Amino acid sequence: MELYFILLGAGILSGILTILFGFAGGFVVVPLVYSTIRLHEVSDSLAYTMAFKSAVATSLLLMLINSGLASYQQFKRGNIQRKYLFPIAYWIGIGAVIGTFLSLYIAPIYLKWAFVTYLSMTILDCLSRQLKSQQFQQTSTRVLNAKEQRLGGIFIGGIAAALGVGGSVMTVPLFRRCGLDMSSAVALANPLSMPVALAGCLTLIITQWIQPPHLGIHFWGYFYYPALICLILGGFIGMKLTLGLSSKLSNTAHERGYIVLLTLVLFSILLT
């Protein structure tokens, strides 16, 4: 029972991260759901063996729901600049489909180090921008050209889907390079995380429809719904608590918090 309260807290944290940084909480949710399944299921059961895959599946569905709710709230507040949303959203969707299938054939270690390399470069870029911002204030913005949208979208969708994470760790820095402030970049990251989560969820649903896994009464296919209920409820609470906070943060403080979060994600990837 205590783990379900922890999952509720993780859901609240995922809701906060979704609003503040565009993170749907996968790096927090996956280990907790994995631990919950392993503690509640018999060690020689299929559910115990497939615990990590179920944790990723549950995280993807939560990501889809959280990103959808956050996108709706951001849209109501007029924070989403739609000229930056399309057509990169389509290319991210295409990349997510490609990444989902490539993950079946490419060794995970190569995907992991590709992501680590990108993340390290992004952190350095953010730190460099922080230093430059102390010398001058950037006021000009630009839109992505067709090549940047096509290649960037496929790369973001492919890497994110292959690793089972949201694309905000790549979309937010991309829009910051276009001159957008943190609040605008995070607002765009929410809807752009949805194609990745949707591609992953649909792939799992089709897989379980073709070959049902029969994990037990607490599962719908690969999705572990007791944890999902706690996470969805917690995510809703976290988003409600945080919705007005992001607009009150200064751009400098917002980006510094984002750098800290990216660094934590980098270490979590390196240690797994």
Q: What's the short version?
A:
The chain is an all-alpha fold. It has 11 helices and 2 strands.
| Share of residues in helices | over 70%
Low-confidence stretches: none
Nearest-angstrom radius of gyration? Answer: 18 Å
**Sheet/helix structural class:** mainly alpha
The span between the termini is: 27 Å
Mean pLDDT: 77
Instruction: Outline the biggest β-sheet.
Output: 2 strands, antiparallel
Total of DSSP H or I helical runs spanning 4+ residues: 11
The strand count comes to 2
What general outline do the C-alpha atoms trace?
globular
Instruction: Provide the succession of SSEs.
Output: HHHHHHHHHEEHH
- Fraction of residues in β-strands: under 5%
Keywords: Cell membrane, Membrane, Transmembrane, Transmembrane helix
Family: Belongs to the 4-toluene sulfonate uptake permease (TSUP) (TC 2.A.102) family.
Membrane topology: Multi-pass membrane protein
Subcellular location: Cell membrane; Membrane
Describe the structure.
Strands 1-2 form a two-stranded antiparallel ribbon. A hairpin with a 2-residue loop joins strand 1 and strand 2 (223-224). The mean pLDDT is 77. The chain has helices at residues 2-21, 26-40, 46-49, 51-76, 88-102, 108-133, 146-163, 168-177, 182-210, 225-242, 251-270; strands at 219-220, 223-224. It has 272 residues and is mainly alpha-helical. The longest helix is centred in the last third of the chain and has 29 residues, at 182-210. Helix 1 (2-21) runs antiparallel to helix 2 (26-40) and helix 5 (88-102) packs parallel to helix 7. It has eleven helices and two strands, in the order H-H-H-H-H-H-H-H-H-E-E-H-H. The chain is globular and about 60 Å long. Helix content is 74%, strand content 1%. Its main location: membrane. Belongs to the 4-toluene sulfonate uptake permease (TSUP) (TC 2.A.102) family. It is found in: Cell membrane; Membrane.
